[in-house]
Structure to design on (255 residues):
């Protein structure tokens, strides 16, 4: 087990890194004052790996994901996704890049209620200007265990089924990286297991890359590695940790 002071050493970025954060700092300024949400994060998310991002509430997990996905710009430092420095892209290019290289899964599913399951899953391809084939959409739905559900609307599905639609939507364009923020936060244990198993399988069998924020050590144990944030800093990491090892690390941080 890695200790808090002995976390993964810095290493040069390689071509097999899907996402690299290099000295990423994010400072929010408001009337109430300044918040240092991220204070110099350096980390490489290797391709075809599943990484969990953990840390106490307010430690900067969502901010890290937002910066890594180019949804928010760092105050300082660099974010490189699939070899491209996001700072070099204007908003239009960034949006295009996001559509072609990134997938997103959120706690609240974020499906479009007026669209069928089929059309929700096909949407990223349509937004990227492609014409999705029926077979491709149905195969992706089958992959997440939702054969036969393509004609329904999100409201006609359970929470776990809706999250699996969101995962199908995130995977269909074969993105270089999928960002997931508390994807099982609204699900019960059994349904969470199905969703996490699906995420892990998509990495192990299809070579996807996933960065997942979670506060649940059991959820994090599905990942290959876990990185721990505290107060905007990367303070530790764990490879192939069990839920109890991860929980022990978390309670050490929360002391
Ligand atoms: N848009 C914003 N404007 C100002 N401060 C913000 C903004 N977004 C986040 N923060 C602050 O930045 C810090 C990190 O927030 P962040 O949402 O990244 O935490 P988190 O680790 O995801 O927490 P949680 O587990 O509660 O979701 C917090 O202090 C938060 O209040
Ligand atoms: Mg958050």
């Amino acid at each position: 087990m890695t200790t808090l002071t002995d976390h993964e050493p810095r290493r040069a970025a390689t071509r097999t890194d899907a996402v690299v954060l290099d000295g990423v700092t994010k400072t929010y300024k408001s009337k109430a004052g300044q918040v240092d949400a991220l204070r110099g994060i350096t980390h490489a998310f290797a391709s075809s790996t599943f990484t969990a991002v953990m840390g106490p509430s307010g430690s900067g997990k969502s901010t890290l994901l937002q910066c890594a996905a180019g949804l928010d710009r760092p105050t300082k430092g660099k974010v490189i996704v699939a070899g491209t420095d996001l700072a070099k892209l204007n908003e239009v290019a960034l949006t295009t890049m996001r559509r072609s290289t990134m997938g997103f899964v959120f706690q609240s599913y974020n499906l479009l209620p007026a669209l069928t399951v089929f059309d929700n899953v096909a949407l990223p391809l349509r937004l990227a200007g492609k014409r999705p084939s029926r077979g491709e959409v149905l195969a992706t739905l089958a992959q997440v265990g939702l054969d036969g559900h393509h004609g329904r609307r999100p409201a006609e599905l359970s929470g776990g089924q809706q999250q699996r639609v969101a995962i199908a939507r995130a995977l269909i364009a074969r993105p270089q990286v999928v960002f997931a923020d508390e994807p099982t936060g609204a699900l019960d244990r059994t349904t969470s297991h199905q969703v996490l198993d699906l995420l892990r399988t998509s990495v192990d069998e299809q070579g996807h890359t996933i960065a997942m924020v979670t506060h649940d050590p059991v959820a994090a144990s599905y990942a290959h590695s876990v990185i721990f944030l505290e107060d905007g800093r990367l303070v530790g990491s764990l490879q192939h940790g069990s839920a109890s090892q991860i929980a022990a690390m978390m309670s050490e941080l929360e002391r």
Notes: The helical segments are 61-68, 91-101, 117-127, 134-143, 159-171, 189-206, 217-220, 243-254.
